[in-house]
Amino acid sequence: MARKVLYERSGLPDNHVSRNFLETLRRNVRVRKYSYWSVVYESGVVTQQLGSVCIFVLCWWLMETGTLVPSQLFTSSLALSFLGYYLYDVIDGGTGRRCSGRTRLADLKSVLIFLSFTYGLSPLLKTLTETISTDTIYAMTTFMLLGHLLFFDYGANAAIVSSGLSLNMALFASVCLASRLAGPLHTFTLITFACELFALWPLLQKKLKKQSTGCHGMLTVLFAVVVVTALAMVAPACAALAIVLLFLLSFLIPLWLVKLQLYKDNIHGPWDEAEIKDDLSGVLH
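== Phosphatidylinositol glycan anchor biosynthesis class C ==
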């Protein structure tokens, strides 16, 4: 019977390796195999979130140029939010409502309180960044939106994922852009739209993806078409760049990931592997 003893003389040199040492060598034991179309399907979450950021920036730009009236954006986004709320409730079947104990009246009160406070604070938010140059505002907005996309929860169990940080960075970017609009009503509309797009929409997005794969695929195509069409009307060069970027995200990068699986080589054997355990209970006690 083999014994693994470190401090004991065995009559063999320290660098001795038995002939059957590598007989139990195993490769790629727990490696996950990816299929191309499943990766393409999962990349739709990235496409949708990138589309959400593009739609938000486009709405800000249209209000900045006077093409889009704040009342139009507010009424349309609010109507879509109520539609999404009803759809979420139908898909959920009332399970979440029964667990939380919240009623529709309580949800309506929360919405009214949020709208009231946001509308009341709009004049303050409008003048919040008056002393900061516009170039600095645009730079901060770009950095925050990139951070929002980086830390967003796409469904992967990774340390970099932080839904709270991602949402806060998106809202900070919305405040920065809203402060450069014409008046408090524009500021109120853009911040409300940002909350609906970055806070409420991801909840419905996850529910729809879990409920129906076809619905998730159609939403991905819809976001891509809307973004490319809107950019084509504003800046055709940006629309061409968006097409290339969406093609890379949806088809080329998934293909690259699948091809890289051929070079995966994890080995497992009879040696003692170092394992880092994130359990501090023994240390604390």
